[in-house]
Structure formats: structure tokens, C-alpha cells
Design brief:
The chain starts with a strand and ends with a helix. It has a 7-stranded parallel sheet with strand order 3-2-1-4-5-6-7. A 6-stranded parallel sheet has the order 10-9-8-11-12-13, sandwiched between helices. The protein is built from 14 helices and 13 strands. The chain is α/β, with parallel strands linked by helices. It is globular and about 60 Å long.
């Protein structure tokens, strides 16, 4: 097959899909809906994909620019003899994909794009009209969580098939090796007895990192060895929000107990989960977050939001995670202290979570499911 992705060419999820299908003999291509640096383009090509260019912003007033983009997309899909067009994330890329009138057309809903049971397209006329249009005209929609399906069905065509497929975890890479990475203690200037809380989510208001910062002083008072690590991806950071999070720490008793690290190389990410005693991921809305499943695969217990979006097979309160009101710093502090002090509880939750991830969340099993869907789709359309 010749598969073209309309996706963000800066992120590891795009590279992993390109790599899987390229390694299995398919030809893969990518249009990015975000600007790419030369190093980003190099990463796309190293993953086996052919970079076809950037999808520029979608204009209504300057409609001739948008029409030119649609014409360019159609031409390249025709010239490259594409068999399947696949949009990752619901946004401008799905609008372009739908307006190209190419079939078969696949859309993947990831959870940061369709937010919660009450989600509806935004007030912008492009979102209000084009997002439902794209969902209605898809040949297949995949969701990263079971709980997204009911929302998607409100806008998709009645005959559009919907399946649950997420990005999957590389279980050889993300696993527990029985030891904490000593080099990270040195790099982060942590004492060897540090109890580490890791926040791997983006520095944006959606992820409630300010609530974690507000909880930090109480955590450090109860657990004097507690330290916090925030992974900050500059390309996706809300600078004003980051300043607010840093200010909360600077004014509290935990000001010397926090480290803000830059983008973590993919090869080092498992070591950060192995370093951590607790991973915390508390967005206001989510799908099936790979960061949570990665932490589970590494044997590190996780605290998540008390929201309905999660796939209960992986994320079940008191069994595989602790759920907490993501808007309440006191509740967040209590949950963190509980997992840091109650080692038996932390071990029980981490063990059950790891077993579930290993059983059904592997990268190979999820991509294999997607491959079968592609094949059936090409036969049907």
C-alpha cells in the first residue's frame, strides 16, 4: 500500500506510524499541518516516510490560497498513486483531507482534539462546518479510547465504521529493568534517596500543571525527600502558562524541589519513568495517553484525572491508577502523598497496570490492527 498521512511531522507518534508501515514494505508519505525544521524533515525520512510539504493555514477570506492548497494536495495524491489517506488529529488536516475528496479517507481522533462527552465543534465557522463534514465523509474513523466513540458518532455518518486503535507501546523500550538510572540523579542534582514525581505532559493549561505546582508544598512537607520533574517541550509550550507554574513554585516551600527539563530524547524517556516513584497526568480531557501507558509499562504508578474519557480497561481507579479531581490541589497532594508513603498500594497498582498494558497495548498489536483495517478498507472502497 501507499499510505499518506496528514499529521504533525514534529512528533514521535507520526514517526512511529511511518516506521512501522515502512518496515513492512508499504510506501509512506507525510504532509505536516505544522511547520517543520530541517531536523524534523530528517526524522520523517529516517522513519521511512517521504515528506510532501506543509499544509498551510486554512483561509476563508483569502479563499484562493486555500483552493490552491486543495489543488496541490489532490495533485500530489494523484501523482504519488496514494492508496489510503490518513489524518492524525481532528483539525485543519482533516478539513483539507475531506475537501480533497480522496477515498479511502481515514481519520484518527486522539483525545486532545475531541474533548469530553459534551464536546462540539468550536464557534469558528471553519470548525462548525468543516469538522462535521470531515467526520461524515470519512471511510473509517479510529479513536484512541472507547469513550470517544459516542461523541464521534454524533457527527459521523451513520455508516462510517469506528474502531479503537491507539499508538501502542514499544514494550522492549518501555519496561522495568530493576534499577533506577543513576546518571539522572547526577544530571538533575538529586540526592540518592529522592522520591521523584514526574509530569510528562505539555506545559499548557489543559494539563493543569499549575495545580500540581500548588500541591507541591504540602507534598514536600509530608515527604521531605520529594522532588518534582516537569518535561517541557518548547515547541508546544504556552510561555505565559509556564511563567505562572514557575512563579507558583518560586513562592512556595518547594522552590528548590523542582526541575524543568527540556525535550527528553525518546531513548531516555523510559529512564525518566524508572527514575520516578509516581507519574502524574491530570489533563481536563484526554483519550488514551501514551505517556500513562508508557509509565505503566515501566512499572511506575500513575495518578490521572477523574474524567470519563479514559479507556477503563487500562485506567481503572484504585486498580491500575489513582484518580483525582484535577482542579483541586489539596486532593492532588493527598494522592501524591498516599502513593509516596504507601509502598504496598503503589506496588499493587503498578503491577496490575503493567499486566494490562503488556497483555494488549503493545505497539505491534495496535499497528497490526491498523494494518488489517487498511487492507479491509482498500478492498471495500
Amino acid at each position: 500500500m501507499r499510505i499518506c498521512y496528514l499529521a504533525d511531522g514534529r512528533y514521535i507518534h507520526s514517526y512511529r506510524w511511518l516506521r512501522y508501515f515502512s518496515n513492512r514494505g508499504h510506501q509512506t508519505f507525510l504532509f505536516s499541518f505544522a511547520p517543520l525544521t530541517p531536523s524534523d524533515v530528517d526524522a520523517v525520512e529516517k522513519a521511512g516516510g517521504k515528506y510532501l510539504g506543509e499544509l498551510t493555514p486554512f483561509h476563508l477570506k483569502r479563499f484562493w490560497h486555500t483552493a490552491a492548497q486543495i489543488s496541490r494536495l489532490r495533485r500530489l495524491l494523484r501523482e504519488e498513486k496514494i492508496d489510503v489517506l490518513h489524518s492524525h488529529f481532528v483539525g485543519v488536516n482533516t478539513w483539507y483531507g475531506a475537501l480533497s475528496r480522496f477515498h479511502p479517507n481515514v481519520i484518527t481522533v486522539m483525545g486532545g482534539d475531541i474533548l469530553g462527552e459534551d464536546w462540539k465543534p468550536g464557534p469558528d465557522i471553519r470548525e462548525r462546518w468543516l469538522t462535521p463534514y470531515a467526520l461524515r465523509n470519512a471511510d473509517l474513523i479510529t479513536c484512541w479510547s472507547n469513550n470517544l466513540i459516542s461523541v464521534v458518532k454524533r457527527y459521523s455518518g451513520p455508516d462510517v465504521p469506528i474502531a479503537v486503535v491507539h499508538g501502542g507501546i514499544d514494550l522492549e523500550h518501555f519496561s522495568f529493568n530493576g534499577s533506577r538510572p543513576q546518571y539522572l540523579f547526577d544530571r538533575l542534582d538529586f540526592p540518592r534517596n529522592a522520591r521523584v514525581i514526574l509530569s510528562p505532559r505539555l506545559m499548557r493549561p489543559l494539563y493543569n500543571l499549575d495545580k500540581i505546582a500548588s500541591a507541591a508544598a504540602a507534598v514536600c512537607a509530608a515527604v521531605p525527600e520529594a522532588y518534582f520533574v516537569f518535561a517541557v517541550l518548547p515547541v508546544a509550550t504556552d510561555e505565559g502558562y509556564q511563567a505562572r507554574v514557575r512563579e507558583i513554585f518560586s513562592e512556595g516551600a518547594a522552590k528548590d524541589r523542582v526541575r524543568f527539563v527540556g525535550p527528553i530524547p525518546h531513548d531516555e524517556m523510559p529512564d525518566y519513568y524508572r527514575l520516578a516513584d509516581v507519574t502524574i497526568s491530570i489533563p481536563s480531557s484526554d483519550g488514551t495517553p501514551m505517556s500513562v501507558l508508557e509509565s505503566m509499562a515501566c512499572g511506575t504508578p500513575v495518578i490521572v484525572s477523574r474524567i470519563p474519557n479514559y479507556d477503563a480497561h487500562y485506567i481503572e481507579d484504585q486498580k491500575t491508577v489513582l484518580m483525582v479531581d484535577q482542579t483541586n490541589p489539596d486532593a492532588i497532594a493527598t494522592a501524591l502523598i498516599t502513593l509516596l508513603q504507601d509502598r504496598a498500594l503503589a506496588e499493587r497498582i503498578a503491577t496490575e497496570a503493567k499486566q494490562r498494558v503488556v497483555a494488549s497495548a503493545s505497539y505491534e498489536s495496535q499497528m497490526g490492527k491498523m494494518n488489517e483495517l487498511y487492507e479491509k478498507l482498500c478492498l471495500r472502497v
